[in-house]
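Entry 0007
Protein: Nucleotide-binding universal stress UspA family protein
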Amino acid sequence: MEGIVVGVNGSVEADEALDWAVMEASSSGHPLTVLRVAPDVDEAELTGVLDEVRAETAAILDRARERHEPFDAEYAVLPGPIPDALLAASAEAQMLVLGRRRRGRLGRRILGSVSSTVVENAHVPVTVVRHVDRPTDEPHDDATGPDAPATAGAGPVDAAAAPPSAAPRVVVGVDTSAPSVAALRHGAEVAARSGALLEPVFAWQITTLAPLPGSWGWAPPISDYEDFARQCLDAAITAAEVDVPADRIRPRVVHGQAAKVLIEASQGADRLVVGARGLGGFDRLVLGSTSRQVLDFAGCPVTVLRA
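Output (structure tokens):
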């Protein structure tokens, strides 16, 4: 499948992901495929199950057409398991879109297993559109309730928030890695076609920056580290070949832990884009901690690109 592939299952969060995918396909000009994965059943039962699920998926698409201006889309139904089907179907796509519900810690780890597996193993950009429960929805633990601060579970952010703006914003997490340059290139493309502000954010701490040139044996002033971080951000913008008018680019260098800073920056944004290193096993769990935290707590849809 090519273009935008969105996974649906009839839930509220999947419908919201579908709505997001409809707008993304319209903006980008890519074809849209609505994908439903049928239960993993015995071969003898599969034909009947597939027919039933196809009818349900057609109804899901019909309801989406009622919510939007006319749009073109196809739908497909594949047998499970769900993560395997989503990964296989989206292997040639420009983007895979998934819905994910905001729940308490235990619920997130169990019910978010599909999105986590897909994000960790996909070779195409994956956007997770998280449904935020309303006060009338099921109970939460205190850390992730509807009245909790945006950075619940991640600690305070020791940086000023981005200046408020009525214009749409695309926030991109930037560091010195190749995946973050790819994320910045993707974010710039989105901003260029949508007219949004592009906000590349470089979060830094002394422990995350390499020693400053010529600084061995002494401690430079903190302003030198900030200047060095800004140089790193400028280099990433150059490497990404950002083609967005200068008045629509708002680069920010912020002292703080990356996940905390990005979660704060995501509040009110239209999208947060982050890069994830293509590592496996234990390294992925450790080095992917930033993308994992923003997927859990960001205040907007999150697109993850793996290099």
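Curator remark: The longest strand covers residues 197-204. The CA atoms of residues 112 and 258 lie 22 Å apart.
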